[in-house]
Amino acid sequence: MKAKLWAKIGARRTWAWPYVLFLVLFVVLPLLLIFVYAFTDPQGHFTLKNFVQFFTTSEAVNTFIYSMAIAMLTTIICLLLGYPAAYIMATAELKTPAVMAMLFILPMWINFLLRTLATVELFNMFSIPLGEGALLYGMCYDFLPFMIYPIYNTLQKMDRSLIEAARDLGANGKEVFAKVILPLSMPGIYSGIIMVFMPTVSTFAIAELLTRNKITLFGSLIQRAFGEGGLQMWNYGAALSLIMLLIIGLTSFFGDKEETSSATMI
Question: Hey, CA dihedral for 5, 9, 12, 18, is it positive or negative?
Answer without folding.
Answer: positive
